[in-house]
Amino acid sequence: MSLTATPSMVRDSTRRRKRSGTHAVLTALPWLVPTLVLILGVVLYPAALMIYTSFFKYNNRGIQRGDAPVGLDNYIGTAGALTFPGVPVGRILLNTVLWVAVVVLITVVLSLALAQFLNLEFRGRKALRLFVILPWACSVVMTATVFRYGLQENVGLFNRLLVDTGILQRAQAWTKDPTSAFWVAVFVAIYVSLPFTTYTILAGLQAVPDDVREAAHVDGADGLRRYWFIVLPLLRPAIAVAALINIINVFNSLPILRLLQETPGYHTGHITTTLMFEYQRALGPGVSSALSVLNFIFCLVIIAIYLAIVQPTKEVA
Amino acid sequence: MARTRSVRGGINKPPSPWVIALGSIAIVVFFGFPYALMFISSLKTRLEITNIPPDYFPATPRFDNYLTVWASEVDPASSLLATAVIALGATLLVLLVATPAAYYVARFRFPGRMVFLLLVLCTQMLQPTVLAVGLFQEFKGWQGYAVWAALILINAAFNLSFAIWIMQAFFASVPKEIDEAALIDGLGRLQTMFRISLPLVWPGIVTAIVFVFVNSWNEFSAAFILVQHTNLQPLTVSMPRFLGLYIKDWQYLFTVAMIAIVPVVILFSFIERRLIGGLTAGSVK
């Protein structure tokens, strides 16, 4: 046997690469089909169904009214998602942008500090990391519920603590006013987003080689400059991933606002996601689908803007 | 991971003990206080917890709340069962579906591989919340226990991308030659995966399992919109029912919350160390 035959024999026996394209796809399919079925059936199909539903009329019990599609009536008709009387749409859109921007920005900044601290060498830092992980492991529902209780006007212990320490004159009904409830929810959203973000940045920090920082030290850069010019640029991919996943999560966070806002109806503390559930209950799937579609497009726009500004895929030398 | 750094010329000065102490206290207080409040509140009587103004601590800690809660009107046992069935079912389904896909994608180049990976990444951007209305339209006919099946499918589908992403990074880290040796020795592809690769990437699988389990355990939106019958609701949806119009059983609500979060926190603490590497294995490198 010549030398050239041997590799092809190995390839044959291990059954990999160099086959006709279709054959390769056919061999791959059995391994991938379950995933594809699940993604198509439970993610993409309902997405398509939602778009389809948004062009038909339904009542609030989910029963279809009439067979003919109604065009954009569910979007901008007399009782459309964007034009329903009494809904402060402009304010809600503004809230949504504020919600995402404020929560993600503060989360990332705080997480950078937290990760820096947890990356120090000291006794007990492993136990400390377990504390940081708490809001992640505990369900968002439970965490939001504790804050809801603590901030009750009469029975809330956070309120009593704030009054006892002299920070507040008298207890406030934080969750009964849409605006204050919104900002409480912002706090809780930051709170539950910190663990994931901190851990991602911590992973990035541990990948920063010591020699790079050492070289900067030898060149005379002080701690702050080393951080700003050396560590932070190297952290960029980690920050980008954390921020992107946070944007998606925060945009989709329903329970926090839902549990902390104890005001019914179309108040000024909604974001588009909570409004969607309000519509689903009051107006049925037609209008709420329309808002869901807009919601999804809105989400894509925010992500696109983020990607355009941050360019997370840009190579850092 | 647990890398011990040598203290070298200046860049890794041992941090000041004051900074460490203050920082540690701040972290413990900040991340501990809601859950401390949850625990303390779960030991009060209804009278104590609805007292105006409220007392910080119960006169005597009522540990029997953890027994009497099971007999309450909300029936947390059935909710706990629902949560457990949905979370376990979804985790198992993800494991069955994601493992072969992750293995194949990590091992082979084939036409459409990038498309497949992109599709998986795209589902990462979608969540049950944003598709809730579509999911409602699709699954509204699934009544009775079938609604649990629907939630298992939903939780599995939306956690799939993450699991595939983590697992394929771990599979890719195992040298191909090990697989090839097994194949030459006459093992089939499937057997090679199960008997050779899987034991080597076990840490990655555990990370994915726990992650999916915790996410499904805590899922809210899909369950909220789909489950109509109160006795089929998982915990996240049924818990607010402790807060009736007239009677507010906050203490029971927090008792159930404690019961629900303790196993999850323990589980999470097991994979804590691996989360640092595992989470970003596919994306950051």
Question: Describe it for me?
Answer:
With 317 residues, chain A is mainly alpha-helical. Chain A has 13 helices and no strands. The longest helix of chain A is centred in the first third of the chain and has 33 residues, at 21-53. Mean pLDDT of chain A is 82; it is low at 1-5. Chain B is mainly alpha-helical and 285 residues long. Helix content of chain B is 67%, strand content 0%. Chain B has helices at residues 17-41, 46-49, 65-68, 76-107, 113-125, 132-139, 146-172, 176-184, 189-200, 202-218, 221-226, 235-238, 250-278. In chain B, helix 4 packs parallel to helix 7 (146-172) and helix 7 runs antiparallel to helix 10. Chain B is globular, with a radius of gyration of 23 Å. Chain B starts with 16 loop residues before the first helix and ends in a 7-residue tail after the last helix. The chains are: A mainly alpha (317), B mainly alpha (285). Chains A and B meet through helix 1, helix 2, helix 5, helix 6 and helix 7 of A and helix 1, helix 4, helix 5, helix 6 and helix 7 of B.
Highlighted features:
heterodimer, A: mainly alpha, 13 helices, disordered N terminus, B: globular
Biggest sheet of chain B: strands, sense, closure? Answer: none
How many runs of DSSP E, i.e. beta strands of chain B? 0
**Helix share bin of chain B:** 55-70%
Termini Cα gap of chain B:
15 Å
Major β-sheet of chain A, in short?
none
Series of secondary-structure elements of chain A, N-terminal to C-terminal: HHHHHHHHHHHHH
Based on Cα principal axes, name the global outline of chain A.
Answer: globular
Question: How much strand of chain A?
Answer: under 5%
For the record, give the distance between the C-alpha atoms at the N and C termini of chain A, rounded to a whole number. Answer: 48 Å
Q: What share of residues are in beta strands of chain B?
A: under 5%
